[in-house]
Design goal:
about 200 residues, alpha+beta
Length: about 200
């Protein structure tokens, strides 16, 4: 029975993916804009896409692909805010990096729903090596975030900062990455988030 159900799901995915192949991510991004009317229904729709695509068929995608990005500033010289967000969240793997002016500065992700976060990967794009101080705050709402990582050290361009959480960070929808000290403009090439959707208990790790 389980064997048959797997192929039923594969068939359903085949139909869905061919009907929506041209507008899959654009639809997800459209839903993730702040101009929606019924967030709860739309959040479940976005997470259904995550359920079918990330869990059943090619596990390993990033929850942050479906996030809204806000920041203290999007530097005009780095590209449009939309282009910077697409690069940062890996919606465009070869896209431009997010950049703001000198610290203090922040970039914030709003996920489409509440998750238990198991890992976060940050790819640095600062243009000058040196001592940096970053703080990561997370929470279920924008006004109820708490600091989970205080990152102080010498960093350099194209360095990955990989953070893992065991047990996971519970009930997270907002991730606020704040830079206090940096020898150059604040710039991140990737901000990738992995975890479990609380509604289904489905992992995309």
């Amino acid at each position: 029975m389980r064997f048959n159900m797997y192929y039923v799901l594969r068939f359903c995915y085949f139909i869905i993916s061919h009907c929506n192949s041209r507008n899959y991510l654009s639809r997800a991004k459209q839903i993730s804009s702040k101009n929606y009317n019924d967030h709860n229904i739309q959040a479940k729709w976005v997470n259904s896409l995550i359920f079918f695509n990330e869990y059943f068929f090619w596990k390993g995608g990033s929850l942050s692909k479906y996030a809204i990005v806000t920041a203290s500033l999007f530097s005009p010289s780095a590209g449009t805010p939309a282009a910077q967000a697409d690069g940062l969240l890996d919606r465009n793997p070869n896209g431009v990096a997010f950049a703001a002016y000198g610290p203090p500065a922040y970039v914030q992700l709003e996920l489409p729903d509440v998750y238990n976060i198991t890992s976060i990967s940050l790819l640095i794009d600062q243009s000058q090596n040196g001592t940096t101080h970053h703080q990561l705050l997370v929470g279920p709402s924008e006004n109820s975030t708490q600091m989970v990582n205080n990152l102080i050290g010498v960093t350099y361009r194209n360095q990955w900062i990989n953070l893992t959480y065991n047990p996971p960070l519970n009930n997270v929808r907002f991730l606020h990455l704040k830079t206090i000290i940096c020898p150059s403009w604040v710039s991140w090439r990737k901000f990738l988030v992995h975890g479990v959707w609380i509604y289904y208990g489905i992992s995309n790790n």
